[in-house]
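Journal club prep, notes for RB
We'll compare a predicted complex against what the paper describes. Inputs for the zinc ion case:
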Amino acid sequence: MPDIQIMPSLLAADFGHLAEGCHRVEAAGADQIHVDVMDGVFVPNISFGPDVVKMSSAAVKLPQNVHLMVTRPQDHIQAFAAAGSDTIQIHIEAKCDVEETLAMIRALGKRAAITLNPETPVERVFECLEKRWVDEVLVMSVHPGFGGQKYIASVESKIATLRRMADWVDIAIDGGIDDVSVLSAAAAGANLFVAGSYLFKQDDMKSAVSSLREMAQEQYCKAL
Ligand code: DX5
Ligand code: ZN
């Protein structure tokens, strides 16, 4: 059974003090740090580039979980791999050859992940699992582009379908995760939890990370 892990999103950190944000995540006992990369085309917002991943990987020892919300991920894999990414997530909706781009990620020694937007049917990622092109699937529970949005619970049926298909794969959920949504997401079979605004607004991020992990552990796969 895949581990339950909590991944705070750097997008919710104070942009004036990003390295401090990374240290805060590490000191809180998080399992990985999630870095949201947005190109202003695939999503309306623009956020970080490879230099931020480079800074983050130099600042902390945590695995760098890098979410590419970009139109042509194939043009940027090399740069993000060289910057210190450990997992690289591309979108199934991107304009790329998905098999080739995932293979490119693995050829650089990184974990490969496929991501799908809330409105994208789960069937679109079946081949990635069946052919084992990925180590992780990221299910978006908000429309990508911004932190602090409302959790879309209807994506949980996609998580349940994926978990029934593959007990070996890491299933991540991203968007609107807090002490309520974590319960049903874990019950549906998610084991990796991205949380941005919920964790960064805590006075005590460490106890929030531990309690999210405990709640998820308790609920994991209960709904299946
Ligand atoms: C949204 C990003 C998320 C975001 C989550 O496009 O992919 O990772 O940081 O933020 P919260 O947890 O605030 O919804
Ligand atoms: Zn993300």
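Talking point for the session: The chain is about 35% helix and 20% strand.
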